[in-house]
Amino acid sequence: MKTIFAASLLIICSLTIQADVTESTCYGSAKQGRLENAVKLPDEGNNYTSYSTLAGILGRTYVHSKVYDVVISAYKMLETEQTNKVFKYAETGFKLGGEFKPHKTHQNGLSVDFMTPVLKNGKSVHLSTHAFNKFGYSIEFNQRGRYKDYRIDYDALAAHLVTLHQSAQKQGIGIWRVIFAPELQPNLYHTQYADYIRKNIKLSKKRSWVRHDEHYHVDFSVKCKPE
């Protein structure tokens, strides 16, 4: 009986390990694509959380396996790079990819929305996200980067972009673009990370169909198969 139990346990462990290392396969583009073997982002970690537990239950926080590794690794780096700073991710995509309303992209597992890091009374806090403010997406910061008692933490935002880029390089992938409100972008160049961002990260200068001030959209670059 012990032998049978041990053999069964070994099989279960091997299957678990195999599932953990299964790499995702993306097809098509962010605007018209799908995803195989997607991975769900954790609901929370030491310095980050999801924008909505319900969204996770509904399957709106799945990404490509390489993007998963990049996102989690970047948060780990920020534990020492930005001590006492907290971060929050938002919409990513469905388990199988495909149309992801109300977004026009997010279809092949390579797009991630991150809620903008903020300060309240000088302390790093999570931007409030709930059903009554469309899980944060209806928040509007003014030209000074303020909303009620919140103030955009540009140092934390810039540091996050840098760690995402560095983590992506380690995974052998890249960042195609970052969408963040063009009128707020100059504030990133007043941080210690300005030179790195100028040299390595493409910030879209085009105005999107939504403002992208309460969140910033990151498209990762992974070679996908044709749809």
Which features does this protein show?
Muramoyl-pentapeptide Carboxypeptidase, domain 2; single chain; 13 strands; globular; 5-stranded mixed β-sheet; 4-stranded antiparallel β-sheet; about 230 residues; about 20% strand; alpha+beta
In short:
The chain has 227 residues and is α+β, with helices and mostly antiparallel strands. It has a single domain (2-221), classed as 2-Layer Sandwich (Muramoyl-pentapeptide Carboxypeptidase, domain 2). The protein contains five helices and 13 strands.
The major pleated sheet works out as:
5 strands, mixed
Domains (count): 1
Uncertain stretches: 1-19
Calculate the terminal CA-CA distance, rounded to whole Å: 49 Å
> Strand-residue fraction?
15-25%
Question: What is the CATH third-level topology name?
Answer: Muramoyl-pentapeptide Carboxypeptidase, domain 2
Structural class: alpha+beta
**The CATH class:** Alpha Beta
Strand order of the largest sheet: 4-6-7-13-12
> What is the succession of H and E elements?
HEEEEHEHEEEEEEHEHE
CATH architecture: 2-Layer Sandwich
| C-alpha-based Rg, rounded | 19 Å
Count the strands?
13
Q: Describe the global form.
A: globular
Helix content range: 25-40%
- Count of helices? 5
Mean pLDDT: 90
